[in-house]
């Protein structure tokens, strides 16, 4: 009896291990994979996506699938379609070419590049049709395009989706690969927290929703699985860093065998996508792959429900009035203005409200007895006329990858006064690059003690108090935050913030507070000229 119990346990462990690595049983005759470039997990939740929401309600979703670092397109698309990390594929950055590669691939296809799921399907199921539609031409330098039975480059995101879906309805290939770049363009052009980016996601939601409804109406979903994900996320106007808005993408699965209403609790990796496609089609992945079959999507549902995060308007900057929306019917939103984590005991949102000072708003969605993730927005009240305690000097045409020595830059192109340590009040265009700014003011500390400062920027920045560096966030990089602690006496201290913009997005935020009590924007009484 004891031996039987041990044997059963061992067999159980073996079955679990096998399912984690890959389930080789074909689960679907057709797989339709749709990749939206720069489609982040927060982007899904903030945008208006009734069709994605319906697919999630009737299928499965992961909000915590992580991408490879750095969070750029080439290496992440390759990880996604190969089932392997960059150390195996050899595609290490967004400028990768076969001729300039630094790392040899760990396995080879017919073009001496790391094999993709397209190669794997054609090698093991030569009669299966593999179709590909793509918008970004740079993507195909990483693939053996001969593996496709049909492929087409399209002019924009809408035509990519519509042509791909029309061709699928005509030929019904076993595997359809669709790559949309329009969402990435929208993120770079409008910003990943801007309505223009959300509108692009909503456009994709509408077209994909129409396609899925047509498949359902014609009875074509009974043997098919639709997968939707991004290759990376984004923040502000760029990506490439380690912010969670860049690192986490959603994976939506809908179709044959997928558990209705399943929220995947455990984090996936982007290279799990190819391994899941392979498992659905009964394909054995190369030994050099590291991806796992996303078995969570087929396991019984539990009490977790999809609860999207709220969207605070405006997202940042000066706000006279604040409003909050959420892409979920019958959901309630709660928020705080004091740094506390919002719950049902916090302020319930019932309409637009005004703020009377600089504040950090935290908000959460509550539905079906569950909370969403907490979101935080830094907003600044309209400063009184004449209130501008921070002197700034703006230097144009600075070209460097680290902060300059401001004493050697000569005369500033513009100088004046502003009310916050942000870029919102400075005289430059949102798309302008190659400049540096020096901010100077006096910080009034009412009580002696240790204070924590959080400095976020894209690109580099530095906080200096009384000629001592408190936070060093220097270098050319996407938006990232660093903190420092300073022990300050009561009284007035000279505070300086140095900043420079290299390219691809610009952002600066500085908050502070007593250590252990959170960080907030500076109030009107804490700064003076």
In short:
The chain has 529 residues and is α+β, with helices and mostly antiparallel strands. Helix content is 22%, strand content 29%. It has three domains: 17-298, Alkaline Phosphatase, subunit A (3-Layer(aba) Sandwich), CATH 3.40.720.10; 311-380, Immunoglobulin-like (Sandwich); 390-528, Jelly Rolls (Sandwich), CATH 2.60.120.380.
Please compute the radius of gyration using only Cα atoms. Answer: 26 Å
Number of DSSP strands? 27
CATH superfamily of the largest domain: Alkaline Phosphatase, subunit A
CATH classification, class level of the largest domain: Alpha Beta
Number of helices: 11
Instruction: Report helical residue fraction.
Output: 10-25%
What fraction of residues sit in β-strands? 25-35%
**Mean pLDDT across residues:** 92
Q: What's the CATH topology name of the largest domain?
A: Alkaline Phosphatase, subunit A
Q: What's the CATH architecture of the largest domain? A: 3-Layer(aba) Sandwich
Structure, explained:
With 529 residues, this protein is α+β, with helices and mostly antiparallel strands. It has 3 domains: 17-298, Alkaline Phosphatase, subunit A (3-Layer(aba) Sandwich), CATH 3.40.720; 311-380, Immunoglobulin-like (Sandwich); 390-528, Jelly Rolls (Sandwich). The chain is 22% helix and 29% strand. Strands 1, 2, 3, 4, 5, 6, 7, 8 and 9 form a 9-stranded mixed beta sheet that branches. Strands 18, 19, 20, 22, 23, 25 and 27 form a 7-stranded antiparallel beta sheet that branches. Strands 11, 13, 14, 15, 16 and 17 form a 6-stranded mixed beta sheet that branches. The longest helix is centred in the middle third of the chain and has 23 residues, at 195-217. The protein is globular and about 75 Å long. It starts with a helix and ends with a strand.
């Amino acid at each position: 009896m004891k031996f039987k119990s041990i044997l059963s346990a061992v067999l159980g462990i073996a079955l679990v291990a096998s399912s984690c690595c890959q389930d080789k049983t074909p689960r679907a005759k057709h797989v339709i994979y749709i990749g939206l470039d720069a489609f982040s997990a927060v982007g899904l939740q903030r945008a208006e996506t009734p069709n994605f929401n319906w697919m999630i309600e009737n299928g499965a979703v992961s909000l915590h699938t992580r991408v490879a670092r750095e969070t750029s397109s080439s290496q992440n698309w390759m990880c996604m379609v190969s089932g392997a990390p960059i150390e195996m594929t050899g595609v290490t950055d967004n400028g990768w070419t076969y001729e300039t590669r630094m790392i040899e691939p760990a396995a080879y296809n017919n073009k001496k590049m790391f094999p993709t799921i397209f190669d794997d399907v054609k090698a093991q199921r030569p009669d299966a049709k593999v179709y590909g539609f793509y918008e970004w031409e740079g993507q195909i330098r990483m693939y053996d395009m001969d593996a496709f039975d049909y492929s087409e480059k399209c002019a924009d995101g809408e035509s990519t989706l519509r042509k791909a879906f029309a061709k699928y309805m005509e030929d019904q290939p076993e595997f359809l690969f669709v790559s949309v770049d329009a969402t990435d363009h929208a993120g770079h052009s409008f910003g990943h927290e801007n309505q223009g980016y959300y509108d692009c996601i909503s456009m994709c939601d509408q077209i994909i929703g129409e396609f899925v409804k047509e498949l359902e109406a014609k009875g074509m979903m009974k043997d098919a699985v639709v997968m939707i994900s991004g290759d990376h996320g984004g923040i502000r106007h760029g990506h490439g860093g380690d912010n969670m808005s860049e690192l986490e993408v959603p994976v939506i699965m809908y179709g044959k065998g997928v558990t209705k209403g399943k929220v995947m609790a455990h984090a996936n990796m982007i290279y799990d996508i190819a391994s899941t496609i392979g498992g659905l089609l009964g394909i054995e992945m190369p030994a050099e792959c590291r991806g796992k079959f996303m078995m969570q999507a087929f396991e019984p549902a539990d009490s977790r429900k999809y609860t999207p995060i709220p969207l605070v308007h405006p997202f940042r900057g000066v706000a006279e009035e604040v409003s909050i929306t959420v892409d979920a019917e019958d959901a309630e939103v709660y928020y705080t203005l004091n740094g506390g984590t919002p719950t049902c005991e916090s302020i319930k949102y019932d309409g637009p409200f005004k703020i009377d000072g600089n504040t950090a708003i935290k908000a959460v969605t509550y539905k079906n007895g569950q909370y969403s993730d907490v979101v935080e927005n830094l907003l600044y009240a309209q400063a009184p006329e004449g209130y501008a305690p921070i002197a700034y000097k703006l230097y144009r045409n600075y070209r460097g990858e680290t902060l300059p020595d401001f004493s050697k830059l000569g005369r500033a192109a513009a100088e004046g006064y502003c009310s916050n340590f942000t870029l919102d009040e400075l005289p430059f265009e949102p798309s302008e690059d190659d400049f540096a700014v020096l901010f100077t003011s006096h910080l009034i500390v009412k009580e002696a003690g240790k204070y924590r400062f959080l400095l976020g920027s894209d690109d580099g920045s530095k906080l200096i108090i009384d000629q001592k560096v408190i936070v060093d966030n220097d270098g050319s990089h996407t938006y990232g935050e660093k903190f420092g602690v300073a022990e300050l006496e009561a009284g007035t201290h000279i505070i300086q913030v140095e900043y420079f913009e290299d390219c691809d997005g610009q952002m600066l935020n500085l908050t502070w507070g007593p250590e252990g009590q959170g960080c907030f924007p500076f109030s009107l009484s804490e700064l003076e000229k």
